């Protein structure tokens, strides 16, 4: 069974590529001997209004595939999330950060998406999303030059679902 869920860069969880179900936030502090990561996750599990919730997605999957998957309880959802995080942590410790990157790319919604950008002079630029750099910023291949650039969220306005990135200027 595979529900139609995906990740909108950098940290939103979407159903069907159009309805936001939740998101995550990570705060990391690193010193010379350890890294401390605080993780927050918000998820719409059961509230159907005004948008969509995960249990709606499960019900729609059941209707489409003639299955009887039960709705998720809060306890079951937390258990699934924490078990998956523990598995990912163990895999990253054993095999490296690439494991997490591969898992992220399995679900993200933007690979090879064509986008429009507004350049520093106000000119319209076209690009193709090609990945995420080592710092988690979006990698865009500018057209027609082929130059790959990192796009930083602190200096840009994103409407990723509309394929538009607009730099903010002071």
From TrEMBL:
Domain of life: Eukaryota
Coiled-coil intervals: none
SUPFAM superfamilies cross-referenced by the UniProt entry: Class II aaRS and biotin synthetases
Entry's Gene Ontology molecular function annotations: biotin--[biotin carboxyl-carrier protein] ligase activity
A Pfam family hit: BPL_C
Residues annotated as domain BPL/LPL catalytic: 1-93
InterPro entries recorded: aa-tRNA-synth_II/BPL/LPL, BPL_C, BPL_LPL_catalytic
GO cellular component assignments: cytoplasm
Protein name as it appears in the record: BPL/LPL catalytic domain-containing protein
Native source species: Anopheles merus
